[in-house]
């Protein structure tokens, strides 16, 4: 099995866990004289099996991510950490540029000449340029990660 397949399986299994959880909650109590919609005990047993599968899958994915190397960036885990930080950096720069430009919440347009003028404390164009550069790096890194996910075999 390829790492990409395991990641898709993890996403599907996580959705299955949430569905079972919701069904268990819906069947945990029922009105006297009526039957519950589903057998909550059976659902709990099914949930345990699905969670055991999910745990084994996550262990294998993590083991693979920590072992597989990716284009001069170190391990896949290192690349994932880099991607997470690039996303945070991009969001921070974009928010700073938006705030300095006066867009977003709390932006009030000056209506009279006598009102105080708001000035940007940060170079908006420079921040947007940096954010664009990070977005490009992020896209390239994401493509590399995705390619690696579909090329790497999942470890036991």
Distinct helical segment count:
4
**Count of the domains:** 2
Q: Give the oligomeric state.
A: single chain
Tell me, what's the shape? Answer: flat
Q: Calculate the terminal CA-CA distance, rounded to whole Å.
A: 10 Å
Written as H for each helix and E for each strand, in order along the chain, the element string is HHHH
Task: Give the helix/strand layout.
Layout: H1 3-27, H2 40-67, H3 76-101, H4 124-151
For the structure shown, list the relevant keywords:
mainly alpha, 156 residues, 2 domains
Concise summary:
The chain is mostly helical and 156 residues long.
Textual characterization of the structure:
With 156 residues, the chain is mostly helical. It has helices at residues 3-27, 40-67, 76-101, 124-151. The protein folds into two domains: 1-67; 69-156. 69% of the residues lie in helices and 0% in strands. Helix 1 (3-27) runs antiparallel to helix 2, helix 1 crosses helix 4 (124-151) and helix 3 runs antiparallel to helix 4 (124-151). It is flat.
């Amino acid at each position: 099995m390829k790492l990409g397949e395991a990641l898709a399986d993890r996403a599907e299994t996580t959705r299955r866990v949430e569905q079972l959880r919701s069904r268990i909650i819906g069947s945990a109590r029922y009105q006297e004289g009526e039957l519950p919609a589903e057998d909550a005990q059976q659902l709990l047993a099914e949930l345990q099996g699905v969670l055991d599968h999910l745990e084994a899958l996550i262990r294998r994915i993590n083991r693979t991510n920590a072992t597989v190397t990716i284009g001069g960036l170190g391990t896949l885990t290192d690349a994932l950490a880099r991607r997470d930080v690039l996303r945070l950096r991009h969001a921070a720069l974009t928010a700073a540029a938006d705030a300095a430009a006066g867009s977003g919440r709390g932006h009030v347009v000056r209506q009279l000449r006598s009102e105080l003028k708001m000035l940007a404390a940060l170079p908006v164009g420079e921040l947007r340029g940096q954010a664009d550069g990070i977005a490009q790096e992020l896209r390239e890194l994401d493509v590399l990660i995705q390619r690696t996910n579909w090329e790497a075999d999942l470890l036991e």
